[in-house]
């Protein structure tokens, strides 16, 4: 495995959100261990970026996972319900047996006054899982400069 140059966490998170916004394998993103650049791909959307010829080389590029690959979909929602809404766990499990589950799940959370708590939980767990995945893959997360916000480099896909 090639050693990795630092990647901005915000760039990695945008790539993760891009991949997770579609069914498996429709949107893809790859991180270059050599440059730290994120490359975007979609079988549905016509992106202007052309992927490098050696994108399949796992020693140079790593494919950004989908949220389901990191157990951040339905499993995370159920874990939240078990922890924060134990009296509603059966209702939450039932919600996830049908289409449109996230909308109904958020409606339930809104009625219970737990929607903001869900967003905070989801953000925290997503960041933790994505950082752990990056570490396992040998991807170094760039340390943000103190007091200097990370700026967008324009490498995100044109949606």
Write the layout of secondary structure elements.
Elements: H1 9-20, E1 27-32, E2 38-42, E3 61-63, H2 74-84, H3 89-95, H4 101-112, H5 115-137
Antiparallel strand pairs: 1-2, 1-3
Distance between the termini: 32 Å
Radius of gyration: 18 Å
Quick one: biggest sheet? Answer: 3 strands, antiparallel
SS field, number of helical segments: 5
Q: Mean pLDDT across all residues, rounded?
A: 84
Helix and strand pattern: HEEEHHHH
Secondary structural class:
mainly alpha
Low-confidence stretches: 145-154
**β-sheet strand percentage:** 5-15%
Tell me the number of strands. 3
- What spatial order of strands do you see in the largest sheet? 2-1-3
Q: Which overall shape is indicated by the principal axes computed on the Cα atoms?
A: elongated
Q: What number of structural domains do the residues give?
A: 2
Helical coverage, percent range: 40-55%
Textual characterization of the structure:
This protein has helices at residues 9-20, 74-84, 89-95, 101-112, 115-137; strands at 27-32, 38-42, 61-63. It has 2 domains: 9-65 and 129-137, no CATH class; 70-123, no CATH class. It starts with 8 loop residues before the first helix and ends in a 22-residue tail after the last helix. The chain has 159 residues and is mainly alpha-helical. A hairpin with a 5-residue loop joins strand 1 (27-32) and strand 2 (38-42).
Can you tag this structure with a few keywords?
mainly alpha; 159 residues; 3-stranded antiparallel beta sheet; 9% strand; 2 domains; elongated
């Amino acid at each position: 495995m090639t050693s990795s140059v630092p990647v901005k966490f915000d760039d990695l998170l945008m790539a993760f959100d891009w991949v997770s916004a579609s069914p498996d394998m429709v949107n893809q993103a790859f991180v270059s261990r050599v440059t730290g650049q994120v490359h975007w791909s979609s079988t549905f959307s016509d992106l202007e970026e052309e992927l490098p010829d050696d994108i399949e080389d796992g020693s140079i590029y790593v494919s950004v996972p989908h949220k389901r690959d990191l157990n951040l979909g339905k499993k995370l929602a159920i874990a939240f319900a078990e922890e924060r809404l134990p009296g509603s766990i059966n209702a939450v499990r039932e919600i996830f047996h049908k289409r449109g589950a996230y909308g109904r799940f958020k409606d339930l959370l809104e009625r219970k006054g737990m929607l903001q708590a869900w967003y905070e939980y989801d953000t925290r767990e997503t960041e933790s899982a994505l950082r752990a995945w990056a570490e396992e893959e040998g991807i170094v997360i760039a340390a943000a400069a103190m007091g200097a916000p990370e700026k967008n480099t324009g490498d995100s896909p044109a949606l």
